[in-house]
Amino acid sequence: MHAYRTHTCAALDAAAVGETVRLSGWVHRKRDHGGVLFVDLRDHYGITQIVADSDSPALPILEGVRVESVVTIDGTVKARSDATVNPNLATGAIEVFARAATVLSAADELPMPVAGEQEYPEDIRLRYRFLDLRRETLHANIVRRTKVIADMRRRMEAAGFTEYSTPILTASSPEGARDFLVPSRIHPGKFYALPQAPQQYKQLLMVAGFDRYFQIAPCFRDEDPRADRLPGEFYQLDLEMSFVTQEEVWETMEPVIGGIFEAFADGRTVTPTGQFPRIPYDEAMLKYGSDKPDLRNPLIITDVSEHFTTSGFGLFERIVGGGGVVRAIPAPGTADKSRKFFDDMNEWARAEGHAGLGYVTRKGGEFGGPIAKNHGSEGMEALYAALGLGPDDGLFFAAGKPEQAAKLAGAARTRVADQLGLIEQGAFRLCWIVDFPFYEWDENEKKVEFAHNPFSMPQGGMDALNGQDPLTIKAYQYDLVCNGYEIASGSIRNQSPELMVKAFELVGLSKADVEERFGGLYRAFQYGAPPHGGMAAGVDRIVMLICGAQNLREITLFPMNQRAEDLLMGAPSPADNRQLRELHLRSTADAPKPGVVAAG
């Protein structure tokens, strides 16, 4: 017999009744029923119920062992009675009567529970992540993550892509976040950067003639964490294609990404391949107040500024007259809602840093609220008719500068739909956001900056860069969005060295700057570069959506906390003086502050 097990803890069923078996695993739960001890024995695969009574030599051993101790059980498989069958377990039709028990590793008193799914402080969960990972939901999420990634690879290979690995130690690149820098021991005073993305390398692969590249790529960004982005590192399905238009990228990747969601949908609806809506950026910002719209939400924002150019409601009239806008968010079927519902929405908007959220109530065709009173019943009737609203529908208003109004309207759209239970459940709704601005205005620096990927192809090419207001130029750039999350971003690339230089000149960089910062790519484009494009899909966000998790830490093996600390391994940690000397570095962390004289 095997030293530790003849079966896993998910393998035994009624066909095994009468067999002598050996199982090993963790003591998940113990239940003492007056001389009869029931133990749930758990391993990676599942749970088997172990039984020991006064006739079993294993009883005193199992009585004395703590939960989460690792034990080996020798015993006989028995059928459970009809009344005690557990249909929720793969092994629920049987139990194992323990003839002998061996403690392989005794557990100390636990700092946190493993059995059950109760909430527990995050710092404890991360410090004892090896215990946290034993919990059922998190353990299952990690297993599902590996299966999703394996499915990605299969689908990409089936679509004609080949996986290539790109360097981890590289040069700094303008991807929009801080780099993690690695000091060079061999080259004093110089630093490598961990890649924010393999952007330049994958473009160089296209120049090198590899045609279709993909990689499950680790990426590193020194940025603040949030629920949908972990600090430090993340993984993306990175890909690039030669001789393609953006339409071909979409047509190629919809079956891959849509197919992944379908494979793990578990009964949930997925937008059919070939039917992903393609929504221009400007339209998305108008209708949804976001370039990451959740299409499960049926509410549509409308610009109603023209209704308030002349109005008895002076505030809106002044806003519109001053170049601002008024956006309307419907609140259907709110006739039964009290005034408090509308006032609470207004208070929420103020708490979010906005001036407020105007509203109109309507019940049985009767309008209510200060806006309706001042704008007049005739004006309100015209507004409601234009919006297609009914006699029992309310309406919220976001007013101000276009950017501010769009932001408030988008957040209000989400909150109203959530409060009214309008968001479709059990669905993955995917769409492409297209025609992004190539440039944007940096208010802090008072200059034009790239709005997104600086290596994208501007629509109109050199003619647009030479003769068009930079802030009106669109890019062949696109995002893939699912349920309000950006899950992929990509573009058709600029492969012309002259166009590359001109694009960077408009943000204040010279030809010499381009040659210095992006010399490899710039040189490559001078020796025959094919038209190419691609995208990168966030592995972590896709898995989070599939698992129904609310935070990326629930689908990641060993994440950092909100302060970018690894509480389990104690990172980041100080380097000792020998290490610093080898790297030609000196730490200023403990240096005296200016004006302070060191003791001694």
**Outline:** globular
Integer average pLDDT = 94
Query: What is the CA–CA distance across the termini?
Result: 70 Å
Structural class: alpha+beta
Question: What's the story with the biggest beta sheet?
Answer: 8 strands, mixed
Strand order of the largest sheet: 6-9-10-24-23-22-19-12
What does this structure look like?
The chain is an alpha+beta fold and 600 residues long. It contains 18 helices and 24 strands. The strands form six sheets. The protein has an eight-stranded mixed β-sheet, with helices on both faces. The chain has a five-stranded mixed barrel with strand order 1-2-3-5-4. Helix 4 (136-158) packs antiparallel against helix 6 (246-263) and helix 4 packs across helix 17. The relative contact order is 0.10.
Keywords:
single chain, 600 residues, alpha+beta, five-stranded mixed barrel, 18 helices, 24% strand, ATP-binding, nucleotide-binding, ATP binding, nucleic acid binding, aspartate-tRNA ligase activity
Q: Brief overview, please?
A:
The protein has 600 residues and is α+β, with helices and mostly antiparallel strands. 29% of the residues lie in helices and 24% in strands.
SSE topology:
Elements (H helix, E strand, L loop, with lengths): L19 E13 L4 E6 L4 E6 L6 H6 L5 E10 L14 E12 L16 H6 L1 H4 L3 H23 L3 E2 L17 E3 L7 E3 L5 H9 L4 E10 L10 E11 L3 H18 L5 E2 L7 E3 H7 L14 E2 L10 H8 L3 E7 L7 H13 L6 E6 L2 E3 L1 H6 L1 H11 L6 E7 L1 H18 L7 E2 L1 E5 L4 E4 L4 E4 L10 H7 L9 E6 L2 E8 L4 H9 L5 H7 L1 H6 L7 E7 H9 L29 H6 L18
Parallel strand pairs: 3-5, 6-9, 11-18, 12-19
Antiparallel strand pairs: 1-2, 1-4, 2-3, 4-5, 7-8, 9-10, 10-24, 13-14, 14-17, 15-16, 15-17, 19-22, 20-21, 22-23, 23-24
